[in-house]
């Protein structure tokens, strides 16, 4: 019968509770296994794919190739500098074996090679597709390019005076001497034009060749600077000719080569001696610009940095006392400068004009030092954040500021030793001693003030897009409170920017910066365009000897002029960022 057959099927035995628990146990473990499998599956995409690993390998190889190119080009420049330095030292210590003409031939060869590379860079490298995709907005500011053109023009005029002086003596000198100034004028003209136009470039093609060309040009400018510092042949020749002219007027005849037209030669002599320091300053500026270009080769600038940042307008914001005090210093400096220059045009500079010159410095330098100390203290009271973003241009500015300060500080230390060892009780020597000590103090305090200001984030500076993107990508930990805090911060920054005249700290910084700007312009003008008392007072020259003191002054004074000019640029940035 069908019913009994189906009865056992319907009456299946029910499992016991223990069996139900045993059967349910694997079911409880299944979610764990599934979760582990999902976690492993989710971890699989996080592992680096073949494309990512290949791209990382290519990136590492590119970085290694870039470091190798920098190393090779640096070694090239080092070898060129050592070779030129060996020639110049041999010329100084053994004028028979190696003459000044041999050094000129070596430098002329380096100038021609540098000129060929500069022309190739402009005509070929920069015209290739994707050659200059980025530009460094911080490189080559207007004051650097303006100084490049100013000092380049003065160096060009210096070579014109030199050619004129040699032409006036062509009857008793070699015509080959005219060849070297002409090459230098062509080199200066083309180099100045290329650096003005391409100082912001971040070249992406022919990187190794570009690095080598930049280092070759930098080494050439460095050797020109070394030769200008150590070579006093032209100055000795001028002094010898003046001495011969005095003997000729007294009735003694000599066989020295004399100028055919005394009036024209006097113009050439004065122009050459006045413009001589500008050649060393021009070489230093070119070296700095070329080094920045070398660092930027192959560099990829972020998009928020690639766009030119908005130029903050230069407003006084109610700043009164700083410019007024600075103008008083400028007026006094111009008066002292004019009086000293009028006196220096005569045969002998009177004693009281040296007193006036050094007394002006003794009055101005401590005032500048106190202003720098006050500005550094205000920087410490500020609430602006430190700008920790890597910036090679700012790093180079700091290095140049510290390095250029060594020029005047070195002269000051040499003067201190000479005064203490000879006649420290005389009035002029005491003034020179006080001037040297105050000059060292002023350089130290001003460097502290400028470096501290450059590393403060300007209030008008926008937050980089990359940082904003990271902040937006991160999940807010406190929800709307974080967004509210960020909004309040932006609103407070906008308020401070709009009503900056209400902040006494910022106003004090602007007053101090403007005062120091005008003072540095004054102290830049006096040694740049005038006779140098450090060489004319005779104290250090008698103590160290003509050749040694000539090298010390020609090494330190151009660095001092460059320091004042560089300080003005740094102080302008501090003023705009305050």
TrEMBL record:
Main location: membrane
Key words, A-Z: Cell membrane, Hydrogen ion transport, Ion channel, Ion transport, Membrane, Transmembrane, Transmembrane helix, Transport
Reaction(s) this enzyme catalyzes, per UniProt: H(+)(in) = H(+)(out)
Molecular-function annotations in GO: proton channel activity
Topology class, membrane: Multi-pass membrane protein
Membrane-spanning ranges: 71-93, 105-123, 143-164, 176-196, 208-228, 273-294, 314-342, 354-378, 398-420, 512-531, 543-563
GO cellular component, one term: plasma membrane
Keyword Repressor set for record: no
Cellular compartment(s): Cell membrane
Location of the region described as Disordered in the Swiss-Prot/TrEMBL record: 1-31
Family of the protein in this entry: Belongs to the otopetrin family.
The name this protein goes by in its record: Proton channel OTOP3 isoform X1
Organism field: Sapajus apella (Brown-capped capuchin)
């Amino acid at each position: 019968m069908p019913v009994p057959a189906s009865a056992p099927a319907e009456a299946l035995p029910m499992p016991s509770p223990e069996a139900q628990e045993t059967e349910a146990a694997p079911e409880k473990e299944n979610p764990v296994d599934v979760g582990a499998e999902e976690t492993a599956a989710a971890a699989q995409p996080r592992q680096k794919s073949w494309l990512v690993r290949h791209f990382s390998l290519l990136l590492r190889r590119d970085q290694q190739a870039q470091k190798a190119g920098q190393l090779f080009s640096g070694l090239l420049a080092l070898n060129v500098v050592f070779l030129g330095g060996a020639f110049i030292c041999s010329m100084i210590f053994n004028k028979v074996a190696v003459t000044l003409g041999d050094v000129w031939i070596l430098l002329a060869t380096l100038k021609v090679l540098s000129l060929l590379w500069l022309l190739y860079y402009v005509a070929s490298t920069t015209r290739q597709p994707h050659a200059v995709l980025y530009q460094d907005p911080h490189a080559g500011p207007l004051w650097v390019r303006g100084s490049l053109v100013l000092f380049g023009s003065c160096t060009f005029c210096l070579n014109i005076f030199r050619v004129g002086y040699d032409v006036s003596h062509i009857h008793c000198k070699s015509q080959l001497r005219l060849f070297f100034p002409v090459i230098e004028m062509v080199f200066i003209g083309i180099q100045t034009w290329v650096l003005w136009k391409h100082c912001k470039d971040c070249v992406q093609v022919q990187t190794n060749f570009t690095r080598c060309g930049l280092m070759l040009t930098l080494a050439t400018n460095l050797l020109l600077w070394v030769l200008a510092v150590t070579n006093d042949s032209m100055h000795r020749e001028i002094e010898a000719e003046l001495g011969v002219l005095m003997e000729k007027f007294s009735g003694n005849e000599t066989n020295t080569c004399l100028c055919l037209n005394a009036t024209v030669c006097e113009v050439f002599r004065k122009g050459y001696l006045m413009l001589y320091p500008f050649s060393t300053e021009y070489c230093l500026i070119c070296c700095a610009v070329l080094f920045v270009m070398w660092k930027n080769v192959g560099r990829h600038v972020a998009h928020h940095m690639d766009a030119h940042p908005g130029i903050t307008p230069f407003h006084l914001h109610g700043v009164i006392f700083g410019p007024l005090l600075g103008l008083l210093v400028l007026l006094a400096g111009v008066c002292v400068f004019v009086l000293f220059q009028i006196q220096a045009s005569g045969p002998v500079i009177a004693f009281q004009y040296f007193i006036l010159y050094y007394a002006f410095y003794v009055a101005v330098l401590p005032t500048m030092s106190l202003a720098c100390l006050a500005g550094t203290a205000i920087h410490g009271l500020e609430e602006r954040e430190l700008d920790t973003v890597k910036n090679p241009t700012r790093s180079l500015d700091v290095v140049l500021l510290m390095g250029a300060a060594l020029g005047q500080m070195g002269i000051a230390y040499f003067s201190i030793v000479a005064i203490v060892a000879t006649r420290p009780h005389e009035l002029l020597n005491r003034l020179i001693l006080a001037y040297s000590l105050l000059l060292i103090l002023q350089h130290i305090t001003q460097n502290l003030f400028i470096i501290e200001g450059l590393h403060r984030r300007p209030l008008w500076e926008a937050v980089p897009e990359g940082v904003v993107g990271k902040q937006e990508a991160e999940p807010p930990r406190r929800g709307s409170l974080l967004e509210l805090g960020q909004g309040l911060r932006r609103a407070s920054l906008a308020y401070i920017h709009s009503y900056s005249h209400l902040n006494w700290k910022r106003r004090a910084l602007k007053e101090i910066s403007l005062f120091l700007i005008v003072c540095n312009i004054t102290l830049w003008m006096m040694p740049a365009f005038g006779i140098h008392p450090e060489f004319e007072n005779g104290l250090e020259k008698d103590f160290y000897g003509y050749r040694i003191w000539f090298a010390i002054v020609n090494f330190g004074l151009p660095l001092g002029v460059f320091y004042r000019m560089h300080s003005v640029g740094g102080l302008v940035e501090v003023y705009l960022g305050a």
